[in-house]
Structure formats: structure tokens, C-alpha cells
Amino acid sequence: YYDMIEVPTNYLKYYFTYYQILDLKNKYKNSWGDDYSDYRFHKIYLDTGPAPFWILEKEYEKHR
User: Positive or negative CA dihedral for 10, 28, 33, 41?
Assistant: First the structure.
């Protein structure tokens, strides 16, 4: 509660990031077809580590 009072817009960056991840997931779910699995998607995401979304997209392209 106190965090929301001190920095009321802080939650927006997490909200926006959620939708970016969801867009990536939907893009590669359609692209990979039957080869898609949530496990594979999240493993690549976690193995890449903290990175901008353009790097994440390149990593997903490598694992196509």
C-alpha cells in the first residue's frame, strides 16, 4: 500500500511488460504451431535472462 502511495505509477511498467510478454507468446505460439509448448517458451525466456524485448525476439527466432 505504501509503495502505491509513494510511486503511484510504478505498477504500470509491470502491466505493460505483461502485455509485451503476452504478445511474444502469441506470436511464437502461432509461428511454432505444434512445436509450441509453454515449457519451451518460458525456458527460452528464463535462459536468456534480463534482456530487452528485441533480444528476446532474436532468441526465439534462433530456437524456431
Answer: negative
pTM over 0.85: no
Which one is predicted more confidently, 4 or 56? Answer: 56
For the stretch 24-31, contacts whose Cβ atoms lie closer than 8 Å and that sit 24 or more positions apart, written own/partner, are 24/53, 24/56, 24/57, 24/60, 28/60, 31/64
Asked if 58 and 48 count as a contact pair (C-beta separation under 8 A), the reply is no
3-class DSSP assignment, residue 64: coil
CB 56 within 8 A of CB 63: no
